[in-house]
Amino acid sequence: MKNSVKTFSIVxxxxxxxxxxxxxYVMLDFFVIPRDYGNDAIGEIxxxxxxxxxATLVPxxxxxxxxxxxNGETDRxxxxxxxxxxATGGENNDPxxxxxxxxxxxxTPEPTPTPTPEDLYILTDNRYRSETGDIDITxxxxxxxxxxxxxxxxxxxDPLLFMTGLAKDxxxxxxxxxxxxxxxxxxxxxxxxxxxYGKRENGFVVRNGKIWRNTVSGRNERNTxxxxxxxxxxxxxxxxxxxxSFDEVVSWGPWQVFSFGPTLIKEGEIVVGAYDDVMAHLxxxxxxxxxxxxxxxxxxxxxxxxTVESEGLSLRQMAEILKSLGAVNAYNxxxxxxxxxxxxxxxxxxxxxxxxxxxxxxxxxxxxxKEG
Length: 372
Known about the structure:
9-stranded antiparallel beta sheet
């Protein structure tokens, strides 16, 4: 009997050890071991060239056609071409000469001077305007819901300046780098953390027009990740992977596609909470979000949280703040310890990891490049 118990105990211990080893390997492989999938994207979105404006055709004037006079009245042509109307005047029907008044000289307006790069360029602790004026960023810090909230108001003339970067310039699982390190390498003036695509095996991923992943995220229909597409024309389109095929998304001409969510604001209406778990969207945490005011005009937002100074925001609170700032479409990115905002060479918020003010290593960033 004792030998049987002893044998069973040994077998039990060995079995448990084997299960633990397998579990540990799976966890390490899933969450820790980097997997480089290579830098060959599976496809590329065709860039759409702007269509030239159609020329305004000016019809040729027909001989004898009526033409508008100075006061909008129509000057009629001579009724009988070639004949001269009779003049009225003196005895011999001599025409009475009429003297046209001499116009008074007017001052010629001075031409408006063309701004020089030195006139346009601005770089301060809360403002950046490029030498061409193509990029204009204003940084504002708000205090909302007992939380420090950082908002970058971004205006770009070319929507393709809304760019993304991958950790170590490599696409793959668990390949990570801090937001500030990635931003510095890409010569970014402004950057925030992205959607941490590298934590997941599925979900659409398009970065700077390159297709890296086109598989639907592996959740059930109710909880499938909402996505946001940033199109080449600068507009945002929120959609759900279970309701819209990837081929249809490609037909829109996306420049970026993110797969995290949820969508906060869609076409001017706050939609967060309609399908989310109540506790998930009410929790207060550090947050990151992107929003569209109009094509080429964006808001990038990061909030602090999990500190004595800042409680953090719920998704609903974040949506309300963004809507009050004019957002018509807004989307939640990876938050918590990942939330970080970089401006002019440094992190300006207080990212918290393991109880310390320090950056988390993440898969990707969203950034605006510094000109030149």
